[in-house]
UniProtKB/TrEMBL annotation:
Organism per entry: Christiangramia sediminicola
Signal peptide, first to last residue: none
TPR repeats: 117-150
Protein name as annotated: Tetratricopeptide repeat protein
Source lineage: Bacteria, Pseudomonadati, Bacteroidota, Flavobacteriia, Flavobacteriales
Keyword Glycoprotein applies: no
Keywords tagged on the record: TPR repeat
C-alpha cells in the first residue's frame, strides 16, 4: 500500500511537470525538456533538477546540488542507455565548475543520441564560454547546416542563441569577412535581420580599427557601420541588442569629431546619426541616461564640432545651455510607495577604482549608507552618481544619529531637460 502511494505521487509529480512544460513552451531544444517514456526514476530526478534551477534562479545551493549529484551518481552506477542521464548530469557538473567532466558527459550523451541538437549546442556553448572559439564554431556550423538557426526548424530561443553565438565566435576569431558574407542579405532575412545587421556593423567597425593610418579607407568603413544602424532604426524600432552595440560604437567613433584629420563628410554622417537616434538608443537601455556624464561628454563634443550645418543644434532633447530637473511627480509616486528621498553628499575616493559605497542624507539630515549591490542599475549607472544626486531608498530601521543607516533598496529618480 505504501509503495502504491509513493508511485502515485511520483506519477502526479511527472504529470504536473509535463503540464507546466507544455504551458511554458518547453520543447526538445530546451535544456529542461524531458523525453516521453523516460524511465520514472530518471524522470523524477530531472524534474527535481529543473525545480532546483527554477527556485534558486542563479544562486548556488551546494547542499541541494550535492544531493542531486549523489542521486545522479546512483543512477549512473547502472549501465544506462538514456542520453538524458548523461546530459542532465553535465548540468550538475557545470554548477560545480568541473569543466573537463562536464564536456566528457556531454560527449557521452551525444554518442548515445547523435541527433540531439540541444546536446550538440551545449557542447558548442561549453567551448565558447571557455574561450575555445574554433571548436565552438565547428559545432555551431554543424547545427546551422541542419537549419537549426531557423526558428521554424527548431524554436525561436534556440535559433536566436545559435545565430548570436556563431556570429560572436567569428567576431572573436577576427573573421570579419565571413560575417560580412553571412550577413550580405541581412535586410531581407525574415528572422534575424536586426541581429545580422548589428553584427555586420560590428564587423565594419572592427575592420576600421585595423586601418588607423589609412584614414580614407577607415572613413568608408565607419560610414558603412553607421549606415547599417540607420537602416535598422529607420522604422522607429530600436532592438535592445542593436542599441547596446550602437551606443558602444558611437563612443568608440567619437575621434571623428575631435581629430582634424577626418573629413567634414564623415563628421556630418556621424553627427546626423547621433541627432536622429541617440536619444531613442539611450532611452531603450536600462541604467543609461542622456543626463549621465558619459552622454553629456559625448554630446558636448558633437554639439561643438565645427561643420556647416550641425543637426544636433536643432534637436529638442539637447542643448548646451539646457539643465535637467527632477520629476516631482515621480518623486511623489516613490514617496507613496514608501521610499525616502536622499541627496548624495559624500563619494569616497579609492586608489584602485570607483568606490562601491556612498553616503547620502534626507531632509531631516539623517545619514544613509548606500552600496552598489542594492542599486537597481548596478555598476552600469553607479559611476554617474555625483555629489548632489537625488536617489530614492528603502531601509529596515533607522540607526542612532551618529551612524549611517544602510539602504536595502536604491532607485533612480526620473529627470527631464528644460
Amino acid at each position: 500500500m505504501h509503495k502504491r502511494i509513493i508511485r502515485k505521487k511520483l506519477k502526479e509529480k511527472i504529470l504536473l511537470q509535463k503540464t507546466r512544460d507544455e504551458k511554458s513552451g518547453i520543447n526538445e531544444f530546451d535544456e529542461k525538456f524531458i523525453e516521453d517514456n523516460t524511465e520514472r526514476s530518471l524522470n523524477v530526478l530531472i524534474v527535481d533538477l529543473n525545480t532546483y534551477y527554477t527556485l534558486n534562479k542563479g544562486k548556488k545551493d551546494i547542499t541541494k546540488l550535492t544531493a542531486l549529484k549523489n542521486r545522479f551518481t546512483d543512477l549512473l552506477s547502472f549501465d544506462s542507455k538514456d542520453y538524458q542521464l548523461f546530459y542532465h548530469y553535465s548540468r550538475i557538473l557545470k554548477e560545480f565548475s568541473d569543466k573537463p567532466s562536464e564536456l566528457k558527459f556531454l560527449e557521452k550523451s551525444l554518442k548515445i543520441n547523435p541527433k540531439s541538437p540541444r546536446t550538440k549546442f551545449s557542447i558548442g556553448k561549453h567551448h565558447f564560454y571557455n574561450g575555445d572559439y574554433k571548436n565552438a564554431i565547428e559545432t555551431f556550423n554543424e547545427l546551422i547546416e541542419n537549419k537549426y538557426n531557423n526558428p521554424k526548424i527548431s524554436c525561436r530561443v534556440f535559433s536566436y542563441s545559435l545565430t548570436k553565438l556563431n556570429l560572436l565566435c567569428l567576431l572573436y576569431l577576427n573573421k570579419y569577412n565571413s560575417i560580412l558574407d553571412i550577413t550580405k542579405n541581412w535586410e531581407n532575412d525574415i528572422n534575424w535581420s536586426a541581429i545580422y545587421g548589428t553584427y555586420r556593423a560590428s564587423a565594419y567597425k572592427r575592420q576600421s580599427e585595423e586601418l588607423k593610418n589609412e584614414i580614407p579607407k577607415r572613413e568608408e568603413l565607419i560610414s558603412k557601420s553607421i549606415k547599417v544602424f540607420n537602416k535598422i532604426f529607420k522604422e522607429g524600432d530600436y532592438p535592445i541588442f542593436a542599441c547596446i552595440e550602437a551606443k558602444k560604437i558611437l563612443h568608440e567613433f567619437d575621434f571623428v569629431v575631435t581629430n582634424n584629420s577626418y573629413s567634414k563628410k564623415i563628421k556630418s554622417i556621424y553627427i546626423s546619426f547621433i541627432a536622429n537616434h541617440f536619444f531613442n538608443i539611450i532611452s531603450r537601455l536600462r541604467g543609461e541616461s542622456i543626463d549621465s556624464k558619459e552622454s553629456k561628454d559625448l554630446l558636448s563634443k558633437v554639439y561643438n564640432t565645427d561643420i556647416e550645418i550641425n543637426p544636433l543644434h536643432n534637436v529638442s532633447w539637447y542643448s548646451e545651455n539646457s539643465t535637467s530637473i527632477y520629476d516631482k511627480e515621480h518623486i511623489s509616486e516613490l514617496e507613496e510607495e514608501g521610499y525616502t528621498i536622499v541627496e548624495v553628499y559624500n563619494i569616497p575616493e579609492k586608489d584602485n577604482g570607483l568606490s562601491n559605497f556612498i553616503f547620502a542624507k534626507d531632509k531631516q539630515e539623517r545619514q544613509f549608507f548606500l552600496v552598489v549591490a542594492y542599486y537597481e542599475s548596478g555598476w552600469n549607472g553607479w559611476g554617474y552618481i555625483e555629489i548632489g544626486t537625488l536617489l530614492a531608498i528603502k531601509y529596515d530601521y533607522i540607526l542612532p544619529v551618529d551612524k549611517a543607516t544602510p539602504a536595502t533598496e536604491i532607485k533612480e529618480i526620473d529627470q527631464y531637460i528644460i
